[in-house]
Amino acid sequence: MDLADLTAHSLIELIKKRDVSHLEVVNSFLERIERCESRIKAYLSLRDREDIISSIREDNPYSALLIAIKDNILVKGLRATCASKILSNFIAPYNATVIEKLNQRGFNIAGKTNLDEFAMGSSTENSSFGPTKNPWDLERVPGGSSGGSAASVAMGESVWALGSDTGGSIRQPASFCGVVGLKPTYGTVSRYGLVAFASSLDQIGPITKDVTDNALLYSIISGYDPHDSTSLKLEPYRFTELQQDIRGVKIGVIRELMGEGVDNAVKNCINEAINTFESLGAIVDEVSLPHIDYSVPTYYILAPAEASSNLARFDGVRYGFRAFGQTAEEMMSNTRGEGFGPEVKRRIMLGTYVLSAGYYEAFYLKALKFRNLIASDFNSAFKEFDVLISPTSPVLPFKLGEKTENPLEMYLSDICTIPINLAGIPAISIPCGFVNNLPVGLQIIGPTFSESMLFRVAYGFEQATPFHKNRPNVGGR
Amino acid sequence: MLSIEEVMHIEKLARLKLSDKEREQYRKQLSDVLDYAARLNEIDTTNVPPMYHVLPVTNVFREDSPKQNFSQEDALKNAPLKENGFFVIPPILGGEE
Amino acid sequence: MDYEVNIGIEIHAELLTSSKVFCSCPVRFGDPPNTLTCPVCLGLPGALPVLNKKAVDFAILTALALNCQINEHPIFHRKNYYYPDLPKNYQISQYDTPIGINGYLDIESEDGEKRIRIRRVHLEEDTGKLLHSSGHITHSEMSFVDFNRSGVPLLEIVSEPDISTTEEAKEYLTNIRDILIFLGVCDGKMEEGSMRCEANISVRKKGVQRLGTKTELKNINSFRAVERALLYEIDRQIKVLSSGGEVVQETRHWDEKNDRTVSMRGKEEAHDYRYFPEPDLVPLEIDKSWIERLRSLLPELPDQKYEKYKALGLPSYDAKLLAHDIELSRFFEETVKIFDNPKMVSNWLLGDITKELKDRNKFISQTSLSPDILAEMLSLIEEGKISGRIAKDLLPELIDKGISPKRLIEERNLSQITDTESVLEIIRQVIRDNTNVVEEYKRGKEKSFIFLVGQVMKLTKGRANPKLVNELLKKELG
């Protein structure tokens, strides 16, 4: 295999054994980018080749393993556009805490990846700079909103990447691109320097080629941050060699997420996965989460409400794009009208409405109550089960343009991932099959702070199946 | 179905200048989403407490120790228009002080 | 007047913390623009607030001093509105869970003591500052924004509309300001903007129960403005009502230059703040031990000091002046500990010392005068070692250089001459040298006596005991 297709832990081994040099590794990624990027368009901006090469440290294997960063995470000195016209010229004046952590370990950033504008979307088609393509089929979406990050990893344009997840934005693109994506427990990874979409739902997480890499990267980016009041003062996750044994683990299949709305092809893969789990000695049974059907309406009230407030700061006064206006107020309205794309504007309008006088109780407060109900459903389920599973997405990666006509239809496709963000619990998506060469993702969900369990179950499945070894075979590799 | 006036009111609250076409489009799309969201009324939640915060955490503080953070240059680095250390904007006319 | 007035006052006080409420930027005034900022107080993408504990302590202290109930589970809310000096276009504030509620402040009014109820005390962040190219908010070509003040902690104190006159309003404001200064939470400088005030006013015919329609007054930047603005508005509303009209509920701006309130209607939209709980901050838990610890740190406040000073024998007026001056009261108390004559200490502090301070435009703490030095000086006077006259002359040096009065007197030989022999000698000399004047006195001119006394004092460089001089001179002259 080409070095660019290897996992981080394999590359670290090779580098330590001196079978390969840092420069060779970095060059293989740079060559992959050169050959594929014009077709995939995973990146919005790339660091200069010279800068990347000069960031290599011979005593530090991490400096050879290029990482891609979603363009809503601030890297000092680099552009942070959030795939929006309103920030197209914004240069980050400070580092996100996760980037500080990466810098401390000598990580080498390849560039900033494409996303749905301000992380609002499930296909990366909402980017103001054009969509990213799915490396498995260039006519299909890579998922969203972290589509660029997932595509970069799948395509071998970086070893690993960081994405962000508010309603599925790490897991769903990981699923669509056949890679591994984790949305950690809310509060375990600092949000300082992540451009906020919905503050009570957002989390940064790792996107990688396999589960071991994912656990490794998570251990590096997670931990308490005094700059983030919602970050938890707990013993951070420490990476240990993953074990394959999942005998006796109790796995609950969420009944409501294996119903009518799910493609048969997807269901088949999940059912196969259940067989695999059982053959590995896990105990699998069905579980019901009665309020889970209300997740989508709950989310599409809460997330836009918080977003409408978080995005209010983009007004042309202190940074970013500024339109003309004769008065300050006119300037602000024109800037936002011209600078934001349609999906963003739609959600801001929606969020403003549900918070406005007369509607707060009926919508926002009501949604907060449902959030409680949904979280309680999970709590009850975890009394009986160690983890829960479901498809990551009810559909296979769809074609570009297929769902852009009807926003509501797009929203409904988030049904599997949204409930997890509402409850603040962790979930990981791993490849569990291919249908017509299109990846299908399995979502494994755990209670708060159960990342170790998630990695264990995911690793067990991964090592018993061939899917993590597949690489997209798009011409030019 | 939202009225055009309601849409214009939200537009003003959100400081989003929309074209007529956008306004009409959002009117319909927002109404669809809101109708769908009204599903939440199917369940009586009178006795359910709202989940304001996901974490069972309270009292997160910093000590009152000052630090010099940004220089003036850092602060103005991305300013669309600046002069003499200030951010420059078109005039405010009347209204708040 | 057959109208009753209801005034409610809203105060915003900038807190004397060293750093801002949600970030570590310094709280300082007068720096060049935009030199005290960071991602948080500039509202950059990705920035997050972290609460300054001291700001919460200050809020709780103030709420306790104002006799409020402390909310044990307060949270913060976002108040959403757009304005260029508000970097996030929302202000982190408190909505329905303020830190303190249902408090009161007793003030002196025409009819004796009156209780003004305090509805709430809450914590929020300040905005940046806007400047306009023409110096005024209208007719400018552009505006300038400075975010140094953005994020400074603000305490909002809201009273019920229990205030009935402009005197009571001033009394209320003065008392609140003094309390804030005594607590060390705010320096109360209205002219500098560290304490701001808004008022709402309504009038109603005497006997009518329901409050009248209220207007909100803004841009009241000094005590003088408070008085004039309230008087004007009360007058205006009464005129409107007595001519059969109706008062419109609106915000009015105090126009200092033209001495009137101006309607802001039409320029102001009804705000829909869309309050929702701040997701970037976690709730507060204020337990009893925290409250009690702060309560034990409450310093003695002006009204307690006032009663104490009156009990020490000071006249009401003097007691009040002293009690409301944080530095003088402290100085007074320290001095009385050493020299137990409160009336004498008070007289000197409020009299000659205050004059000297005014001349120097200084606070007593900025001078070299200490309670020890003042006590020493007053002891010397009481013991008759120096005259009051000499003490007064020495005062400037004590204030500027802080030298021990005992030493000064020794060095310059200023001690009061009290021994009869020496005084008699000088008196005889004066009589010898001023025979004409002595003649005039003997012929009945009273004024000449005073002249002769003056000459004795001159020759003794003021050191002679005046009483003794008078006695002996009379005797010598027969």
Describe the overall structure.
The complex is a heterotrimer of chains A (477), B (97) and C (478). By secondary structure, chain A is an alpha/beta fold. Chain A is built from 15 helices and 11 strands. The radius of gyration of chain A is 21 Å and the shape is globular. Chain A has an 11-stranded mixed sheet with strand order 1-3-2-4-6-5-10-11-9-7-8, sandwiched between helices. Chain A has a domain at 3-248: Amidase signature (AS) enzymes, CATH 3.90.1300.10. Chain B has a domain at 1-41: Glu-tRNAGln amidotransferase C subunit, N-terminal domain (Histone, subunit A), CATH 1.10.20. Chain C has 478 residues and is of the alpha+beta class. In chain C, α2 (53-65) packs across α5 (288-297), α3 runs antiparallel to α4 (223-242) and α13 packs across α16. Chain C has helices at residues 39-42, 53-65, 166-183, 223-242, 288-297, 302-311, 316-323, 326-338, 342-360, 371-382, 388-401, 405-412, 420-433, 435-442, 446-459, 466-477; strands at residues 3-14, 51-52, 69-70, 77-80, 90-93, 100-109, 112-125, 129-132, 143-146, 153-159, 195-205, 215-220, 251-255, 260-263, 276-277. Chain C has 16 helices and 15 strands. The chains are: A alpha/beta (477), B mainly alpha (97), C alpha+beta (478). At the A-C interface, α9 and α10 of A face loops of C. β3 of chain B pairs antiparallel with β9 (143-146) of chain C, so a sheet runs across the interface.
